[in-house]
Specification:
This is Sugar ABC transporter substrate-binding protein. It contains 18 helices and 17 strands. The protein is of the alpha/beta class and 557 residues long. It has a domain of 169 residues: 3-Layer(aba) Sandwich (D-Maltodextrin-Binding Protein, domain 2), CATH 3.40.190.10.
Length: 557
């Protein structure tokens, strides 16, 4: 995690193609008529503080002290403390001081938008998922990053080595440029899936459900053995369950709904929420609620970013035995169960179950990255800032540092590259050295969102449990990713026209999807619901995207 907007982002605890030559990033097929680099973005001549001949895997250190402002999201359970070392460590290594502008998790999307629109945003705007940048493209408030990636050798290297070129091409807007740089993942597996308590499922006769039909049968057996339970929960306002579950029905929903378009390759776009596949998904989860198998409260309880909506307590109390979550959520559940005297080893993250759409997962995707304020291009140290961000976001040594801290102090590496925390240091969020005096995340500021963006497989596995490594292997062995969603970048006028329509349509989809699943609206009113979407401008919305898709196909041919 895409992209869900940050408004529906999972909690802090929950976080947890075509090869091209490096130069190909600068010359990929354009989506529009104006794909050439902006000649005004000539960073080479704005080189105060920059390194000569900066290369991939090289330590970036500015030749003179620099400052860079950053929009910093504060999670409720993880405030920035005076004891945090991460900013001092970044400054020590790079000679760049980060200056924080704080925004709370609860309203980060709104405040970010206001700051950007007013021209008051900090230089660096992180925690950006693909699509988050689109509303700001036409205003000129953010920098076209595709014009300057020639100065970012680490980014270019891993796009090539990890076969991400086609996906990067998919970031391009109607003008042929992309305006955010994403977090790159060597291996893509769903961050969120189903977490089960294996002992209870084994007793039900369904050790590891591989399909949603098996999930339902297992839940029925568990309900029979534990009549007071509501054995399945979400905890993320329903958005997680229908996201990873929706793909199995051949649709997109929840966090993965995006612009709502499905198809577009062999047939015109359709709006996902009006398709038979979407209705089948809704009917399945509605049936679970009707049978008392799915906890309604977990679909509607607000998630303030501090956890999985109270589901951990239900795991500990023995009233819930399966729920949505990530590897971090699984640890949260395990810790709660252990504190209640249960067996924490029975908590397991399993691959998303298959369904009518097959044994599939969502399309390979990026993780969060960043945008830059267009003001950065006016700085005399523009080139140095690009080099710094390339090191921080994509340099292997920086990625390890933001995750683990200071080698020889907070962690050690053996000859095989295996990382262990030094005695006295813990990473409680991942159940490492629990009980040690200093937590490298909460006390020192490492392993925050800065560490999440770009990860090799080995780095991702270094802080996760053996069960997570098994999860990765299981997903790669049993599931196929869906093809990428068909690109259809909108031009400036189309973006303005689509904005209000997209919001009203998505609000109606979210509200009514939940109402149908909870049984608050009769499923016999489905056609009426589709009619409501049509009255809200669905035909015009579809026409916009179908036209944009046709234009994209013509320009790429």
């Amino acid at each position: 995690m895409m992209s869900p907007s940050l408004l529906a982002r999972p909690s802090r605890r929950a976080f947890t193609g075509m090869s091209i030559a490096a130069t190909g990033l600068l010359g990929l097929t354009a989506c529009g008529e104006d794909a050439g680099p902006d000649p005004s973005l000539e960073a080479s001549s704005q080189d105060r503080g920059a390194m000569d001949d900066f290369e991939a895997d090289q330590q970036f250190t500015a030749t003179e002290p620099l400052q860079l402002s950053i929009l910093w999201t504060d999670w409720p359970e993880q405030p920035v403390l005076d004891s945090w070392q991460i900013f001092d460590r970044i400054k020590e290594l790079s000679n760049v001081e980060l200056q924080l502008t704080h925004v709370p998790f609860s309203d980060v999307v709104e405040k970010r938008s206001l700051l950007i629109s007013a021209g008051d945003a900090p230089d660096l705007i992180p925690l950006i998922y693909r699509g988050d940048e689109t509303p700001f493209v036409s205003s000129g408030a953010i920098l076209p990053m595709s014009d300057v990636v020639e100065h970012m050798p680490n980014f270019r290297r891993y796009v090539e080595e990890w076969d991400l070129g086609e996906m990067v091409d998919g970031l391009r807007q109607a003008d042929g440029k992309y305006y955010m740089l994403p977090g790159l993942q060597e291996v893509w597996v769903p961050s969120f899936s189903l977490i089960i308590r294996t002992d209870v499922w084994e007793q039900a006769g369904v050790p590891v459900p591989r399909a949603w039909d098996e999930v339902r049968e297992g839940l029925r057996a568990i309900k029979a053995a534990h009549p007071e339970s509501l054995p399945l929960a979400d905890g993320f306002e329903g958005q997680s369950l229908i996201n990873y579950g929706g793909y199995a029905f051949g649709t997109r929903a929840g966090w993965g709904f995006g612009n709502g378009m499905v198809g577009g390759i062999d047939a015109p776009f359709e709006y996902a929420a009006t398709t038979p596949e979407y209705k089948a998904m809704v009917e399945y989860y509605r049936g679970l609620v009707e049978e008392g198998l799915l906890d309604p409260e977990s679909l509607s309880a607000a998630n303030d970013g501090s956890g999985a909506g109270g589901v951990a307590e239900k795991f500990a109390q023995g009233t819930c035995f399966a729920a949505s979550g990530s590897s971090g959520t699984a640890i949260e559940f395990a810790q709660a169960l252990d504190a209640a005297g249960g067996d924490a080893s029975t908590i397991r993250l399993i691959p998303p179950p298959g369904g009518p759409g097959g044994s599939i997962m969502g399309p390979r995707n990026f993780w969060h990255g960043f945008m830059l304020s267009s003001r950065v291009a006016e700085r005399e140290d523009f080139l140095a800032i690009l080099q710094f961000l390339d090191w921080l976001y994509y340099g292997p040594a920086a990625r390890e540092m933001t995750r683990w801290g200071v080698e020889g102090e907070t962690y050690a590496k053996d000859g095989d590259g295996r990382i262990t925390l030094t005695e006295g240091y813990s990473l409680n969020a991942f159940d490492l050295n629990v009980g040690a005096e200093i937590d490298i995340q909460t006390d020192l500021g490492f392993s925050t969102f800065l560490s999440e963006a770009t990860e090799s497989r080995s780095l991702k596995e270094s802080y996760n449990s053996e069960t997570f490594r098994e999860y990765v292997e299981d997903v790669l062995a049993t599931l196929e990713p869906m093809p990428p969603w068909a690109p259809a970048p909108l031009d400036e006028g189309e973006l303005e026209r689509s904005a209000l329509m997209a919001t009203s349509l998505k609000d109606a989809v979210d509200t009514n999807t939940l109402r149908f699943i909870l049984g608050e609206r009769d499923i016999q009113e489905w056609d009426a619901f589709v009619g409501e979407l049509e009255a809200a401008g669905l035909a015009d919305y579809l026409e916009l995207y179908r036209g944009a898709r046709e234009r994209f196909v013509r320009s790429a041919s």
